């Protein structure tokens, strides 16, 4: 049940932009998820368990695409830190 609470917290931030932080419909870089100490230990263990699979997937992604992902994350992180979120609006 606790995993569901974490997923709901992240999903809320995805759709609302985290209370003004982030773009609506996009995943906030630093979602605020509060966990108990025992949950943090479980998360660390799971991360170690899935690291080979994550590495295998990332090894198949072209390097140029990884660079785009990293650049996008960096720009979002800077915007989040400065609390300046630019929205591109398309005039129809």
From TrEMBL:
It comes from the Eukaryota. Keywords: Kinase, Transferase. One of its GO terms (molecular function) is kinase activity. This is Putative aarF domain-containing protein kinase 1.
């Amino acid at each position: 049940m606790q995993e569901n609470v974490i997923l709901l917290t992240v999903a809320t931030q995805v759709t609302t932009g985290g209370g003004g932080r982030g773009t609506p419909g996009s995943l906030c870089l630093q979602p605020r998820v509060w966990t108990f100490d025992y949950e943090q230990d479980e998360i660390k263990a799971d991360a170690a368990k899935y690291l080979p699979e994550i590495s295998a997937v990332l090894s198949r992604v072209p390097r140029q695409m990884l660079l785009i992902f990293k650049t996008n994350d960096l720009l979002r992180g800077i915007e989040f830190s400065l609390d300046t979120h630019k929205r591109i609006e398309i005039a129809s």
